[in-house]
Amino acid sequence: MRQTLDDELDEVYSSSFQPRFKGRIEDWARGQIELTAKESQEFSGAYDPELNPLPTILFEVALDDEYDEAYVMKSSQSGFTLICLILIVFWVTHFKRNILYGIDSLAEVRRISTERLQPLLEKCTDAAAQISGDPDDMTNLTMSLRDLTIYLGGAASVGAQANKSIGLAVVDETDTYKMSKTRTESHPALLILDRLKRVITDCFFVALSKPDQWTDFINKNYLTGTRHKCYVPCPACQQFQEIKWDNIRFSHCKDEHGGWDTERIAGETYLQCESCGQPIQEQHKPDMVRQRQWRRTNYGQDKHKPKPRRFSCHVSDLYSTFPKASWGVLANEWVEAAGDTDKLDNFRRSRLGLPVRRKEVEINEGHLQAMIGVYQHGHCPIRPDIVTLASDRQLDVYKWQRWAWSVERNEGWLIDYGETISEKDLISHANVPVVVDNWDDTPEDKRINPFVMTGFIDEGHNTFTIRRFCLSTKFAIGGKEFLRFYPCRGAASAGSELMKEETFQTEDGLPVPCVVFKDSAIKTLLYEESIEQRAQLIEKRARGEPAAAPLLHLPVGCDPSFMQELCQERRIRIIKNYEYEMVWAEPKGKNDHGDGAKMNLLAYLKAKPMLVALKRLRDQGLL
Hints:
The protein has 2 domains: 2-228 and 296-315, P-loop containing nucleotide triphosphate hydrolases (Rossmann fold); 375-560 and 592-619.
């Protein structure tokens, strides 16, 4: 206890008689910091803050007497870690106070220590003078300098450093710190912050992370900080504004068949000014960023009141001036992720630096009434690109549904539904033509009412019978074999994809392709985004904004029992490992037709890459 008290008194004494740095850290870094090729192959040599200017806001905040804490909610490639390492080197040369740096992975912290931090210290003249020369003093996790010690740690050891006397603490990637099942104390970053609050002068705490969930560490502390955001001027009207994903435009980048044109997206994506409505091109971005203004946005206007001396900010890749983060690159990444909730969540976190906000979901009759259109069973209002059929077997009964889909409009229409006792009867229902109500400009001799091209059958009941039946529906197009019906099964996780095709066997040992899908991801897309958030989806489409979820419609006169089966799924909040988690619970009752809608949506998403080719064949009169 005596040693700890002496350490704190020494820190207070030394800081009290140390001249306060006058000037800007950014200017100091220009002359003192040199980047190695391992740090940056493209920009090795003297550090230039203008190459990635947004993270330098931390330089200003660190010397601002108004703040003791800083929380940065960022995209994954924002450059803030480098700024924090430069800040550590600055602290070594000007404050001579013990320093802590922590990140989620022990392997990563060792790499950062040897490949990034140590070279920065060695190449800075003033900091290098602090190195004793004894190799035992410079380990991966503890750097014993002449006047201070730098402690580095992984997620499991950061909290253990809370008993150290520290003047500067940087805790990186806080939202990836996993709490053990038996842990009852606070987040490790909070333990460090509590320690710093006992130091009287010149202490600073930084927490930064790519966000995960809305209720996780970085977003909770961002909300209760100043919530600074970067504003840049429109080249046309000079109105300052935040660059938001909602204002990025690329829906016009389609090919002649209505599919996404990735080359056009890469070159023609633009930002629409929220003031004058003019398009802002990628080449305007560097000059806009140079004129940036950081503005506080939290003045206590909502329930997340700003806490004293707490700075917070948000940065996304939308501001990046690097080619690999252009608006066109980001738009193409979004298009690739469309339809996969997990990929879209990752895009939101990694590229936009925003948390995922999952809420409780429960479908009711009002949601379904909003889906009812002005068309009859067996009909489709327009000519669809493809028709699908899905079936869920329950004991000796197959419940089935047919849906029609338009890829250009990203819409789906329930055609009809029913029950049968034989899988062979599914073929009969699949062959019933869909009556098209509006052919638009299709010549009469080209009007062929479509029928089911593909479908899914849940193989959970009577697995081998379903696999054998699906194998019997094999056909070939252009020398490539397909199944008209695929067996499918849900899984808690299907890897990084929404669904994947795996090969299983019949009881005779014949190989059968089976679709394995992420059950929670497809439920989110169907129940939350397509059904519960239907009004928001329609508004987004009206603004010309692309949406991952298709707009779904029901015919008039659906049976009450059918409608009830679409209302059984729900997402609820549970407590897991001392934290809240949103999960899809067991259905409240029978939901066979809910599973049918889910599998039809999967069949549409699986066929979607082929739909453009099918449309081309139809346009050429070959289909």
